[in-house]
Design goal:
Layout lengths: L1 E9 L5 H13 L11 E7 L4 E9 L5 H18 L22 H4 L6 H11 L1
Antiparallel strand pairs: 1-3, 2-3
Helix pairs in contact: 1-2
Amino acid sequence: MSRLHLPVGVAYSSDPKAVQSALLEAASKHPNVLQTPLPLVLFKEFGNNTLNFELLVWTAEPNKQFLLKSDLYYIIYEVLQQREIEIPLAQLDLHLRSGKLEFTPEMQCPLNHNVGKILIHKLEKN
């Protein structure tokens, strides 16, 4: 018998109790997850971009734990989608306090990966 830990991050707009319920539902859908001891959901932390939870489950088949973990993540994704619980992408908000910075066309292109370097260069000039 072995225990698996499955970290899951959801959007800050999510109801923690709804997330707990969704994760327990996902665990109950897999035949290799033991119901004794019961699966457990922990609200781990307020992350930088997500509310972080951990689903803990037990299995009687430790040699299948990698497949079980993969299966559970597929099920978790499906259940979260059904309940409209968002799994967000990491994001960075940049707030400029100086009105002296002029935006150039290359900075406005969303595909330009050098925007950060361009901003730093322009800020150093000011």
